[in-house]
Every structure is written in C-alpha cells, then in structure tokens.
C-alpha cells in the first residue's frame, strides 16, 4: 500500500543475559495488548494493569449476560444466548489497508469475513425532504449522478474549459459523463435503470422511474453525505469484520499472552525514577506499589490529571490538551430480520434524526433473529441528548426514530443495549478532540518517551478511534523503546546489550 | 422492492383426486429444478430429463476431481481437496433485489455470505495509459470525481444553468460538488486523502498524492467502465454468494425434490398431442418414449432445431431467432493469497487485456491458498481467441496477462480450469443474443404455452445469464400452467378441478 509501508511489527531488541527487564503496560486496550504481546515475545517480564473488570478497552462486543458498565446505569445484556446475537460496541469495521491490524488477525488466527458497509438498497431519510419519507440510496445516486452529468455535458459544450481540455479530451470527457450519469442519446438524464425498473425487470423491458425534482436532489445534508461516505479512505469497499464479534482480536491477544493481566486495578501513581518507573495501583481496596524498568501507558490522556506523577511539565502540558470525544451506540435485538424482506442485506441507512444511522447485520443471513444498530452518533449535541437519558428512555427514543424509516420497527425490538462511551467507566470518552495547532505541537512530544515512560494508544496516533491507530502508536513506541534501551546503562546493564 | 413485487412463488393449483398428472421437465438447470420443485409440492408426478452427466446447468461449481465437459477437451479439476478451493464457473453473485432466488435460498436452507465485488483497492490497468502499469481504483476515483467537481464548480459560477437552478439550488449544488470531489477551500482539486496518503497516515498528517494528468483520467475505456460498474443495478453493493460454492442452490433443490432426475438423457423428440405431450429421449444407447400431461422445456432454444417436434410455425420461428452468447472463465488455484498482501480482500481488477477481469476470493480470508478468477470475458472476439486454444494454451496466455498486473503472478499458479461456455457440451453458449425487434416479437410468443408445452429458462426472461431470470421464467410458466390447467377438460379431468 503506497500509504502504509508497514512490513511487519517492530522487532523488539530481545532481552539478553539472565536478568529479565520488567515492563508495566497500563491499560489492556488494543494498544496495550499488542505492546505486551511484542515485549513478551522478545523475552521481557510484562505485567498489564487494567482499571476495568475486562480487557479490550473500546474493543468490546456484548452478548447474553455481559455487563455494561455505564456510570450510574449498570445494565446486563439481555440478548438471547446465541453466538450470532452480539453487538460490537466499539470498532466494527476493518479496511484492507489497515495492515497492522490485519497482520495481527493473521498472526493470532482471528477469522475474518466481509462486512457489507455501503448498501445502495438501504435508505436515506431527511425529515425536510420527500415528506420525511425514506428513499433508497440507489435512487438518489442515479439521480444525483444523472443531473450532475447532464449539467456538466451542457456546460462543456460551451467550451468552458477549452484551455484545459483538448478536443480529444473533451470527447473522452463527454463519453465519460454519458456513462457516469447514464444519459440518453441526447445527453439528457431522464431516469435510469440503474435504480431498477417500475415493472418487473425480469419479465418486462426496463422502465425507469422518473427522476426526483432537481431542487430536492442536492438539498439535503444527509443525502449529500451519503454520496461520498464510501469514498472516505477508511470506508472504501470492501470492509471486513471478525467472525463472531470484533473482540475476537482481544481474545486472540489474550490466548497468546502469558503475562498477568491485573483487572479492576486502578493506577494511582506513576513516578519516573533514574533507573525505572514506580507504579502504584489500587486493587480490591489495597494499594500495590511495583517498580519496573519501563512503563507503557495506555490510560486515556484526560485521566492523567487525576494520577499522581512526576512527568515533565512539557509532557504534562501536552497531556492536558486532550479532550475526550463523544460517541453513542444502541444495539437492538430484533425478533425478525425484517430488513432482509426489503432487500437489505447489511449496510447502513442514514437519517437526519438523532439516531443518525441504522446498521443491518450482514452475517448470519436469513436467520430467525438479528442484532442491528439502532443509533450511532458522534455529534456532541446528538450524543448529549442520548447521554442525558436513562437507557430505557434512549431505547424508546431510538425506536421512535426508527419508525420513520421502517414502519412497525418498534414492534420487532426484543431488548437493547446502549453504549455512551463518554459515560462508560474507565473510558469516559472515545476518540480525541484537539485544536489543530495544539495537535501539531503536542503529538510529537507524546510520541517520545518521558524518562522510561512511553505513551501509547490510538490517542497519540493521527487516527484516534481506530484500532489501526492504536497499533501504530504501539509500534512507534516500541521503536522508541529500542532506541532508548540501546542507549541506557542501567542496573540491569548486562540484560540490555542489543 | 419497487421494481419487483414478488411476494412468493406462484401457488400451483394442486392435483385433486386420485390420478396424478404427469409432467416432464426437460433440463435440470435452475429454471427446470425450481419448476419441478413447485410442481412436486403441488402433488404432480414429475420426471426431470437432463442431457448432461450432472444437474445444475450453468450453475456449476468445480472442486477437486470434477469433470469439465468441454467438447474435445475433457479435463478434470486438479484443485487440492479442500472445501474452500472451488470455482464458480457460472453465476457467482446475488444482489439483494433478486427476491426469487433469495426466496429459494431461504426455503431450501442454502447458507449465504457477503461477497466483495467492488474493491477500490484493486487495480485498473490499460496498456495505453500510465505506461501500462496498473493503478488502484481508489486513486482513479478520487481524481475523476475531483476533476469533474472542479470543472463543474467553475462552470456553475458562470450561471450556465440559471434557468434550472435557483440561488439556493446553486449553493446546495456547489456544496454537494465540494463534498463529492473533495475540493479544497478554493474549489480546486489538488489530490485527496480519499486515496490515502503518501506518508503513513496513522502517524503523520495526510499528504495526498498529486493527481494524475487530466488528459489520462478520462481517456481509458477500461477506467471509464470501472467508474460505473458498481452502479449497474445487478452489481450494486452489497452482493452475496452461497457459502461453499454457488451449486449449494442446486444441491438445495435436489435435497428437496424426490422426483427422478434422469441424467445423460438427451431429448430426441417433443410431440404435442391433443391430451398431452410425447417425449422421446436417448439414454445409455436406448431410446425411451414417455407420454406426459405437460412438458416444461428448459433446453437451450438454439438446440431445438435438432430435436424432432411438431411445435407451431410461429413458435418454431421464434425459437430459431435465439443466438447463443459467449462467455469464458478461467480459475487458477494459487499457492499463496498474494493479493491480500497488497491489501486486496476480494473484488475485481479490470484490464484492457483479453483476460478482462481478475476476481479475488473474499471467503476464507488469510488461508494458505485460494482459487481466483484469472479471466472473465463475454466479448465475442476475446472469447473466440480463448476458445480457439487448448486449455493449456489458455492458462499460459491468461498467466502472461496477469503478470502485467501482479508481477510474479505465474509463479503462484498451481493448477487451473477453463470454462468456455460456448464449447461446453449440452450448453454450447451462455446468455442470449437477439435483435431488439426480434426480441420484442419473439419473447411474448415463447412466454405462452404451445399446446401443453411451456418454454422455461433464463433464455425467455428479460435477464438471460442470471439465475433470477431463470426463476422468473419458471414462475411465469407456472402461472400460465395454472390458467391452462383450469381450462382443460382432459382424460384426467377430475384431477384438475382448481
């Protein structure tokens, strides 16, 4: 991939001699787990300290009986006990160019499958347009491309771009436009069989529907957004998912790590020493203090203000700039896969309502039931409205929104989970917000160690909110580690010859 | 689906009384199998007569040891014995709006999965452009959309469409164009991070590549085609496939049919009688003559000239207009899934070379080996070149073509199959070609019975070459059957009260 020359993980300089250097990894999210995995393979003595009752961080898949640890609203997932009824609360998609993540899926034997993400037969719905009724994306795309091409064709006839385009270029461009917009012989867009046919196209010649009013086509923000959603580089088709749930990656790491993972262990203190790092954490009401040679810190940066530390002022200043992002999801267990009867097999419906997106599962096709996503927003105001509600109020609200897309929607809902990441204990956010200039200043500082302390996590990548960012951060910290280690003469000196 | 109001298969009027009416179905392709299935469920006494050694027609999946019955070039598939190493020689994709086929998949418990069809990380390659080197589709799309939007924005500023667009419309349209083409603040296209970044985008801010020369962008027929391939209604994302191979549908029908399927049985004669149909077929050197009450005929229309019959002159004249289509495929077993290392997980590469398309399997991700499609053409001239070769010559030629897309391609090939449908015994073609006016004249004739003889098969649908067309033809013949049956007073009279 031209944009990612990753050829494999950083080869961590191995421990040599008898004394094993000790490393603490704070936080058992994807960045912490991969860091621990690589260090353990190189022979280090690793301990992972995790504040939550579970490993994985935001890589979290819930099934029957799982605890949903929202501040003040602890709930348990009521989905039926069925391996196909699960909900990915955090990451849910993997593009083919996320090479680090794909490397680990391969190395850890995590099975993948194609996930339908873009679905042209799913809907877009904007309350301001078409009387608020949903329309199929394929209809919108045909009309938008058709009108665009027709208008462009008319314009190019006028020689508007004669300086840029030779006669041959113009001819090629016109031919491109005709194909792109499905124009008729006269260069007009009059509807297209790319959006199907009014009569059964298997038995009768195609009779395209009439186009929407031109006025409507380009009016809606939602519709506009849909037209390029699958053009975003991280969402280019095809996307993948882990068979059985995204936490297959967490399980893959845990299967291949023998280092202890201390759960329910909240870090209270991080002190850089001249020859190591002292860490205190609270577990089962007891304060434990350990001394390690190195520390990799995956704790959300905005929590660091509450942890006693002696990090340098520049480092601390940078950490303090991190603002937590908001992200909200609802998963509904549906008694019937009603969407498949509408020809929708996976993918996303977009709406101008607060629930923002509906996702239909694309695995376990034609099964009796399915878990679909009933809300997915990251706009702060939309999130705030959901965050202020109880889980039960959220379900009711999202169900009402769904009715405007699929009449009868509420009647299919058997039970639900809601995940407001900004209210989830030990996370309290998802993704990072920062002013661009702060970002340019802070990131380079935090991508270097402070003493023997390394920050990791998607938070210090350019791609927060994605597992690939978490792995990139881990990888870059490990290459910094190699450099630092090579330059240190420590009490373990003999152990570090590289 | 607005374009297909299929709500379930035709309910065939059941046999009543003691005497079971006898029906012959000629040809065990998808149309024949579904016809037999529905008639059997309604209580009819059905026999299926199939010329080939196997059922399924062009729904054909080959695996280790399977016979490839090409005229003059009988071969056996040498793929490893592995349930994931198979090749769909005929249909390979199912869109969400092919409701008839999806109905049968559900009814027959045929497991489906999402198939990656469009892949923006796969290539397009045209020998005339970019020095013949392949480029990623995502690069092409970003540039094509970018240039198109920039040019359109410039044009609309000039008020070229003032009559059509209000001020508000124009503003909306400009905003749409900016999003569509990923234009900068000045409305210019200068490359886009939608095609990735020159530096690792996980650790450094995105730095888009420079666009291609404008001259190249719209020049290539191949590239132009790619830009709208996934807009064709039958190819809209997402597409599906049968887990384990498309012939899972054939197996599904056969599991649910108890009527005899006579294989290696070539029809020699079809005679309409006043109260039934007489059919003679040759099997194991012996001529068998049977008399049935009704006949459903799935034999390729262009074979009918060689079968003794007493069909009406109009009917025969219509049958004689059918010209067989050409379609050619190669499947290569690859010792390694090299494409996945390039970030390609399924989908299609398009090339101006004779092999036309490469398809990468999207199931069994990260396995050791995979079967990919190494050629797929339906252009008559391209097909003719492959058809004139021996299988071994075809493999060599397609391997050479592949080298221009994936250097080292030939070295991965372990063994291969080739399927020239126009040379496959008992098929000798795929899809139908006919002048439009002939089509309009002939199709309505053949969509009605001649006596008690009904034509079926994708050939008499508007959608030849698709299983959905085959099922639509079967369904419409069965509704004709209901009508005819209701009007007949036959020797079995009592059995037909509807």
UniProtKB/TrEMBL annotation, chains A, B:
Pfam families: Amino_oxidase (PF01593). One of its GO terms (biological process) is amino acid catabolic process. Keywords: Auxin biosynthesis, Oxidoreductase. Its EC number is 1.13.12.3. It comes from the Bacteria. Pathway: Plant hormone metabolism; auxin biosynthesis. GO terms for molecular function: L-amino-acid oxidase activity; tryptophan 2-monooxygenase activity. It catalyses: L-tryptophan + O2 = indole-3-acetamide + CO2 + H2O. The keyword Acetylation does not apply. Its cofactor is FAD. Substrate binds at residue 93. Residues 30-475 form the Amine oxidase domain. The keyword Magnesium does not apply. Gene3D superfamilies: 1.20.1440.240, 3.90.660.10, FAD/NAD(P)-binding domain (3.50.50.60). FAD binds at residues 31, 50-51, 90-93, 267. Belongs to the tryptophan 2-monooxygenase family. This is Tryptophan 2-monooxygenase. It comes from Neptunicella marina. The lineage of its organism: Bacteria, Pseudomonadati, Pseudomonadota, Gammaproteobacteria, Alteromonadales.
């Amino acid at each position: 991939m031209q944009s990612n020359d990753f050829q494999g993980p950083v080869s961590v300089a191995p421990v040599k001699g008898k004394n094993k250097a000790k490393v603490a990894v704070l936080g058992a999210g994807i960045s912490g787990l991969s860091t621990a995995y690589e260090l353990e393979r190189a022979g280090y003595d690793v301990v992972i300290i995790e504040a939550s009752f579970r490993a994985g961080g935001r890589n979290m898949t819930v099934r029957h009986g799982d605890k949903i640890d929202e501040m003040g609203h602890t709930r348990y997932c009521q989905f039926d006990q069925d391996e196909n009824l699960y909900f990915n609360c955090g990451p849910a998609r993997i593009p083919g160019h996320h090479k680090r993540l794909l490397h680990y899926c391969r190395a850890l034997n995590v099975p993948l499958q194609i996930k339908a993400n873009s679905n042209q037969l799913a809907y877009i719905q904007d309350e301001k347009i078409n009387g608020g009724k949903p329309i199929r994306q394929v209809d919108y795309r045909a009309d938008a491309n058709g009108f665009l091409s027709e208008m462009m064709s008319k314009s190019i006839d006028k020689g508007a771009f004669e300086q840029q385009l030779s006669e041959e270029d113009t001819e090629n461009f016109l031919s491109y436009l005709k194909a792109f917009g499905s124009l008729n012989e006269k260069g007009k867009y009059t509807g297209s069989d790319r959006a199907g046919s009014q009569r059964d196209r298997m038995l009768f010649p195609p009779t395209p529907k009439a186009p929407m009013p031109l006025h409507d086509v380009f009016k809606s923000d939602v519709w506009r957004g849909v037209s390029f959603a699958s053009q975003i580089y991280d969402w280019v088709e095809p996307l993948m998912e882990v068979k059985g749930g995204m936490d297959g990656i967490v399980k893959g790491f845990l299967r291949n790590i023998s280092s202890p993972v201390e759960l329910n262990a909240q870090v209270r203190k991080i002190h850089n020493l001249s020859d190591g790092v002292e860490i205190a954490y609270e577990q089962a009401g007891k304060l434990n203090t350990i001394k390690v040679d190195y520390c990799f810190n995956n704790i959300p940066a905005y929590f660091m203000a509450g942890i006693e530390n002696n990090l340098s002022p520049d480092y601390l200043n940078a950490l303090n700039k991190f603002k937590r992002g908001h992200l909200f999801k609802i998963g509904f267990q549906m008694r019937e896969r009603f969407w498949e009867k509408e020809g929708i097999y996976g993918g996303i419906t977009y709406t101008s309502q607060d629930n923002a997106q509906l996702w239909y599962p694309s695995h376990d096709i034609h099964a009796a039931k399915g878990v679909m996503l009933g809300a997915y927003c990251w706009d702060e105001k939309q999130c705030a409205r959901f965050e202020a509600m109880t889980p039960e109020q959220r379900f009711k609200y999202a169900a009402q929104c769904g009715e405007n897309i699929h009449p009868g929607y509420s009647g299919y809902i058997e039970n639900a989970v809601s995940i407001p990441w900004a209210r989830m204990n030990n996370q309290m956010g998802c993704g990072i917000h920062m002013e661009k200039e702060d970002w340019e200043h802070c990131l380079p500082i935090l991508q270097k160690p402070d003493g023997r302390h390394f920050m990791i996590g998607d938070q210090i990548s350019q791609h927060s909110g994605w597992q690939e960012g978490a792995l990139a951060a881990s990888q870059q910290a490990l290459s910094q580690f190699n450099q630092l280690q090579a330059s240190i003469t420590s009490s373990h000196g003999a152990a570090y010859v590289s």
